[in-house]
Amino acid sequence: MDTDPRQSYNPAAIRAIVYDDQPITQRPMATHQPLHPEAALSLALAVIASSTAPVVLLDGDLTIVAASASFFRSFEIDPATAPDRPLFALGAGEWDVAQLRSLLKATLSGSAEIDAYEMDLVREGRAPRHLVLNARKLDYADAENVRLVLAVADVTDARASEKIKDDLLREKAILLQEIQHRVANSLQIIASVLLQSARKVDSEETRTHLHEAHQRVMSVAAVQRQLAASQLSGVALRPYLADLCESIGASMIRDHKQLSLAVTADESVTTADVSVSLGLIVTELVINALKHAFPGRRTGKITVAYASDGPKWTLSVDDDGVGMPADSASLKPGLGTSIVEALAKQLHARVHVADANPGTAVSVVGG
Questions:
Q1: Which pLDDT score is estimated for 223?
Q2: pLDDT at 50
Q3: Under DSSP, is residue 147 helix (H, G, I), strand (E, B) or coil?
C-alpha cells in the first residue's frame, strides 16, 4: 500500500487488506501472524469509523488520525477541522487539560493506561460536560508509528440522574425519620392516657381491659423503635422481644420478686410485618399468663422463646403456673385467644397449647 490509509479508507478496501501480499480473506486462520502495519492501521480506521461511541485514534504526537462520527456530533466539532490537528487544539482549547496531557503521554510510553479518568469539559457559552475517558496503546508490528485509542463517554446526564435519585432517597429518609418520631410520640401519648385511665377507674374488669389495651399499644411502639434502630434493614427479634417484655413487665408486674418475665431468642432477623405480628402474639400470650397462671399472688416465671432453622421457626410462651383448667376444652375462646389464632393464620403458622406440668406451654410453629 503506497497511499495513506487515512485518505483511502473505504469498507471494500478494508475487506481486501493484504497480508504479506496475500488477501486477508484467503489467509489460513491458523497462522496467527501479525498484520502488516498498514493493514493494522486500516483495520483500526475501519473500527473507529464504524463505532457508535465517541472514539478518537491518535498518533505518537497526540494528533488526531481519525475519530468516530459520534465524537464529532457529541462535542459539536466540525469533522473537516479535526484530521492532522492535535487533540488539545480542538474547539477553543477546552481539551487542553494538563492532567489529561500527562496521562496520554504516559500511556504512549507504556508506563500507564487511562482507565476511567474523569474530567469536566468546560466550553464558553455551554454547560460543562462531565466525561469519563479510557485510553489504550495499540500493539502491532509498526513500532515506529505508535497509535493510541481514546474512548470518551459523556456521563453528565447519568450523574445528574444519580444525584436526583440520591437527593430523593435522602429526602425520603428524612421524612421517614420524622414520621417515626411522630408515630413514637403518638404511641407514647396513647399508652399514657390508657395507663392513667386504668388508675382512675373503680372497676377491676375495666382496669384490666385498659391495661391490656396499653400493652397492645406498647407492643406496636416496641417494634417501631426497633424499625428505627435497624434502618428498615430488618428487625432483630432478640432485642425486640426483650424490649417488648421489659415494657410489659414494667406496667403489669407489681412485684418482680413474685413474678419474672424472661426472653431467650437466637439471632433471627425478620421483616417489619412479621415482627409486628410476633410482637402482638407475645403480648397476648404474656397478658393471658399474667391474668390466669398465678392466682392469689402465686410466685412463678414466664419464659418467651424464639428459634428458627431455615424457613422453620417456633415462638413459645411458657409459664410454671397452675396450668390449664380441667374444663378448658369446653371454655369459649376469649379475645386474646382469637387474636393469637388470627395472627398465626396470617403467618401461616399453627398454635399448640399443652400442659407443661407445672404450668402451660403455648407454641406457635411456622414454616
A1: 67
A2: 73
A3: strand
For residues 180 and 340, the model is more confident at 340
Residue whose cell numbers read 483511502: 8
Residue-level pLDDT at 13 = 35
CATH number at residue 16: 3.30.450.20
Q: What is the pLDDT of residues 256-266, one digit of tens each?
A: 889 999 999 99
Q: Do 204 and 329 reside in the same domain of the chain?
A: yes
Task: Single out the residue of 366, 277, 353, 265 nearest to residue 306, CA to CA.
Answer: 265
295 in Cβ contact with 258 (< 8 Å): no
Q: Give dist(CA 133, CA 123) in Å, integer.
A: 18
Determine if the peptide bond prior to 295 is cis (ω within 30°).
Answer: no
Q: Give the domain-ending residue among 154, 181, 207.
A: 154
Give the C-alpha separation, 51 to 43, whole Å. 12
Say how many C-beta atoms besides its own lie within 10 A of residue 5's C-beta.
21
Q: What is the CATH number of the domain that holds 243?
A: 3.30.565.10
Residues 125 and 183 grouped into a single domain: no
The 10s digit of each residue's pLDDT in 43-78 is 667 777 778 889 999 988 999 988 999 899 889 888
Which of 134, 154, 174 delimits the end of a domain? 154
Contacts 24+ apart (CB under 8 A), 33-38: 34/140, 34/141, 35/140, 35/141, 36/141, 37/140, 37/141, 37/142, 37/145, 38/1, 38/5, 38/142
What pTM, to 2 d.p., does this model score?
Answer: 0.51
Where is average pLDDT lowest: 43-57, 159-173, 200-214? Answer: 43-57
Which residues span the domain enclosing 169? Answer: 160-366
CA-closest candidate to residue 260, choices 237, 220, 289: 289
DSSP element (H, E) containing 312? strand 312-319
Pair 253, 131 in one domain: no
Same domain, 136 and 168: no
What mean pLDDT do residues 309-337 have? 82
| Nearest one of 129, 126, 138, 70 to 97, comparing CA atoms | 129
Domain count, the chain: 2
Q: 199 and 142 in one domain?
A: no
